[in-house]
Known about the structure:
The complex is a heterodimer. By secondary structure, chain A is α/β, with parallel strands linked by helices. Chain A contains nine helices and ten strands. Chain B is mostly helical. Chain B has two domains: about 270 residues, ABC transporter involved in vitamin B12 uptake, BtuC; about 130 residues, Arc Repressor Mutant, subunit A (Orthogonal Bundle). In chain B, helix 2 packs antiparallel against helix 11, helix 3 crosses helix 4 and helix 4 runs antiparallel to helix 5. Chain B starts with a helix and ends in a 29-residue tail after the last helix.
Amino acid sequence: xxxxxxxxxxxxHLTVSYGARAALLDVSVTIEQDQLVGxxxxxxxxxxxxxxxxxxxxxxxxxxxxxxxxxxxxAKGKVAYVPQRGAVDWDxxxxxxxxxxxGRYQRIPWYKNASAADREAAMEALSLVxxxxxxxxxxxxxxxxxxxxxxxxxxxxxxxxILLLDEPFAGVDAATERAILDVLERAKAAGKTLVVVxxxxxxxxxxxxxxxxxxxxxxAYGPPAAVLQEELLSQVYEGKLRVFxxxxxxxxAR
Amino acid sequence: xxxxxxxxxxPLTETYFQKALxxxxxxxxxxxxxxxxxxxxxxxxxxxxxxHAMIAGVAGGYLAMKLLFGIEAHAPSMLLGxxxxxxxxxxxxxLVSRVSRVKEDTAIGIMYTGVFxxxxxxxxxxxxxxxxxxxxxxxxDILGVADSDLWASVxxxxxxxxxxVLFFRHxxxxxxxxxxxxxxxxxxxxxxxxLTGCVSLVVVSAVSMVGVILVVGLLITPAATAYLLSDRxxxxxxxxxxxxxxxxxxxxxxxxxxxxxxxxxxxxxxTLQFLVVLVLAPRYxxxxxxxxxxxxVPQQVVEDVLISVLRQERDTPLPVLQRYVQVQQPTVLHKAxxxxxxxxxxxxxxxxxxxxxxxxxxxRQVLRAHRLWESYLASIGTPQEALHPTAHRLEHIRANGTxxxxxAKLGQPKVDPHGxxxxxxxxxxxxxxxxxxx
Lengths: 254, 438
């Protein structure tokens, strides 16, 4: 390996549109390896689109994305993903164990069945998030936090070095949020790069090494102290200035 | 007894019945399996659209062969024609919903009726040339299956099942989570087309048996029945295939015994199966749901018991509880007490009921909510005499930080309007965590 590490994710001049509306406009971000990065911005600011484009699901109009120096369309399977809770059909006939096993699908040739080793790896991923006891449950019969952990296990089972998480903390209580964060921090310690869509500005500074502030355009990218500036936030979150003014002051006092 | 065996055996000796059985089972088997994906992807309407579009294709295929080669009712070209019509309809649906503000369900409705109407008009204009019995087409004729149809359905069954079994994981992942499927390099769009192709094949091969109108039922009803019984896709597919086959067998006997229309009898049997499962399914059935609801003890009753015992400050006998806890039926109180005993909130003593440590903690939180609500009500000018009864109703509203909000808003009062102490907040309050972790 090179002494100088290749960036985990390199986004260059990315523009993605739905019809005439640009979801992302000229976004360039370089995410180094072993980072826990938060993506913040108001609703409809293109956070999920950014995630889906990095996954290669949305095609950019302009720009390119490099995953460990390789074009995203060629780097299939190198990025794992935890979907937003609302994007999952919780009535789908599938068990916890099977969801975790899905993380291994990309390694199984199409003409073969999942091997014992694959099943073991899936169970191991479940044990990392302490969900082995629920392996046989249908996914709709879990609490919100447990559901998040199952999908986290699936992402871990993929063995990718890059994990993208879309609002993993939405709709879970404080204790669960803590538990999920623990898993994320352990993954980071194990050398993974994590990009997390997050909507709670109050905890953003505490959780992440770097923040991406997004509203169609990239407004700021850097350490929390630099991003959570009153001026920047007021540009992005119009009209909710007062709340964030307090926050920025608190952040400045740290 | 002999009569029953005779009734079961006699039809089996008839060729038409054997053919109907083989063809029907093949079609039902494969449509059950494919139907699972159709149901899970919410594509049910698409099956309907495909079957209706077929008539234009059949007419087109018939007409083309007749005019070009003078061949009458050439089965393969009619089959090909219906496949082409199906694909064109799907493409048109996609086009209309993409380029206009018309949503997909409306686009499906417009396109399939349009193509169906085109087929009907063509068939009636060229009735001198082509001899297609519209009624046969609409109702199907499972008891008069032609050998060519039989072969077609068996081949479709084998082919589609092979594709689905080989690529089971791919279809599963692409259906469950298309974003992840794409990110691991699965050709999601190609899989969509492959599935639509499979559905078209199945529909085309099934129309000759059960007709245009009922074919969508054969596609989705067995799958929906299986959906109520299964928590895994592979088992759901197996069950759906089983339900499909049993409804063909049951329907065929029904049709022979009652001398009714074949397709109708099959679908009727299929629907009855669904209804029975809908009621009796162990987890997702109506009966199970009703029993669960019946067993459920209203939280309000539990809280009323807790707070009554707490206020008594000693072991509380049943008559006292019956006076303070309002329930619609006396059995609810008994059920609540039993449940609370099981949950370790109360214990039975010779003098009545006593709170356990956990019960006491819980009760104090209810009391805290009650007194904070009273303080709040007093602060918004509620008359003194209405304070207690109103707060008694409101004390059950405790989830997601309601109590903390009241506490903060009122400036963390120590006593309520009656001068009674408000119990302090306890960290371990289950009510703020409906999704408790284990």
